[in-house]
Amino acid sequence: MCIPESMAIFLDLEVAEMKDVELADGSFKQYPYVGPIRVDWAGRTSFAGALVMGKEPLLGAIPMEDMDVLVHPKMQKLIFNPNPYKPFQH
Predict the structure, then answer these.
(1) Is the whole-model pTM more than 0.85?
(2) Could you count the other beta carbons within 10 Å of the beta carbon of residue 13?
């Protein structure tokens, strides 16, 4: 999960540590890691830490798994897992 600096400041989040992150170009940079952050979506809740980087918040795989939601590529949106006892199938 990633949030912009403005959001971290607005939420008054404390930096827990600095984390090394490998960027797409192969370089490494350190970013602040903050949390916990409560994520609420469609009546489901998760708590997660976040890297402070970028200009838009990005929901990560761990909070999505915790809330049992999936990305539906064809519809381009988040959906509830249609069958929580089986892996999602297209």
Answers:
(1) no
(2) 19
Q: List the one residue out of 79, 77, 81, 82 whose CA is nearest residue 68.
A: 81
Q: What angle do CA 63, 71, 31 make, to 5 degrees?
A: 45
Q: Which two tokens stand for residue 67?
A: 């809330």
Residue 43: CB atoms within 10 A of its CB come to 7
Q: What is the pLDDT of residues 11-63, one digit of tens each?
A: 999 999 999 999 999 999 999 999 999 999 888 899 999 999 999 999 998 99
What three-state secondary structure class fits 54? Answer: coil
DSSP 16-49: EEEEEEE-TTS-EEEEEEEEEEEEEETTEEEEEE
Residue 66, φ and ψ in degrees, nearest 5: -60, -35
In three-state secondary structure terms, 80 is: strand
Per DSSP, the three-state class of 2 is strand
